[in-house]
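Re: weekly structure request thread

Next one in the queue (147 aa):
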Amino acid sequence: MLHQLILIIHLLAATIWVGGHLILLLRYVPKAIKNKSLEELSAFRKNFEPVGMPSLFILIVTGIIMAYNYNVTIEKWFLFENAIEKIVSIKLILLFVSLTLAFITIKFVLPSIDKLSPFLLYFIIFLVTTIAVMMLILGSLVRVGGL
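Done, posted below.
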C-alpha cells in the first residue's frame, strides 16, 4: 500500500512537471516566436517555478524510493542488468541531461540571450520537454515489466 501511495504522489508530481513543460512548449514558445519576445517565457517561468521545482524534487525523491522498492539500489544504478534497472538507469541519465540543460540555460543562455539566437532557448525547451515525456513513457513501462 505504501508503494501505491508513493506512486500516486510521483504521478501527481509528473503531471505538474510534464504538463507544465508541454504547456510551455505548445502555448508559450509559439507565442514568443510570433511576437519575437521572451517576456511571456519569463512570466511563465516565474509562475511555474514555485510549483515546478517542488514537483521535480518530489519526482526525484519518490523515484529513488520506488527504485529501492524494486531492489534497484544505488549500487545497481547504471548496471543495466535487468528490465527495471534499465528503466531506472535511463531515467537517471535523462534527469542528469535535463539538469545540465537547466544549468546551461540559467548560467549561460539567459544572461546573454540578447547576443544569442532565441531559437537556442526554444531548442533547449523542446529538449527538456521531450526528455520529460520520455521519462513519463519509461515510467509507464515499469507496469509491464520494464525494458
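The two ends are 25 Å apart (CA to CA). Helices lie at 2-35, 39-69, 83-109, 118-141.
Next request, please.
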